[in-house]
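Forgive a beginner's question, but might I ask you for the amino acids of a protein and the tokens describing how it folds?
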Amino acid sequence: MIGFLNVVDPIPAQLHYVPSASSAAESYGRQVGNTLGLSVSVTETMVGTGMMAGGGGLEFATAGLATPVAVPAALVGAASTAHGLVGINNFIYNSKSTGPGTATAPSQAAPEGAAAQPKGGAYVLRDAESGQVMRTGRTRDLGRRGAEHGRDPNLRDLEFEPVHRTDVYNEQRGLEQMLHDKYQPPLNKIRPISPTNPKLPMYQDAAKTFLEQP
């Protein structure tokens, strides 16, 4: 249902955020919904185009006498065509966002009796062909951030790779800076932590302590 609604939504998919699927079953369901939505959108576009052509032709053939009928038909056809085209756009966009290689981080349930896996942490974005790290970052929710990057036209072709998982803020800050220092990614506009930040040593110590854990 979510996949279907995402396609037939009158708002282009590029203008709003949709949370990533929480399971493989949900992802499959969305793909089915996307396909159904595409069928509706294509049909809507074809019918709307026909109404536009038919309305204009009726008006011309009757020398304007049918204007009260022809003009509304053409307008409805135009609206139907526009909505259908938005749906086709949404299908293409959503398919790219959920396809192979998309920047996403699937959620995994922790084994029974084991501690829950941290949701946040530090990550890198790699060039799929060269393997070069192009950007680093940190987040409180790796799954959500992966989906967000997957919808970004400038980042969607990069591979999202969680490197360190932790929900501790100080550790996240220090680990992000370490990844930045290690890879010097070209898409990082600034250092994650300013050299003049008085908390820099604290963040670095927290990261080192995290890395020393077994």
About this structure: The CA atoms of residues 101 and 204 lie 32 Å apart. The chain has two domains: 2-98, 121-211. DSSP finds six helices and three strands in the chain.
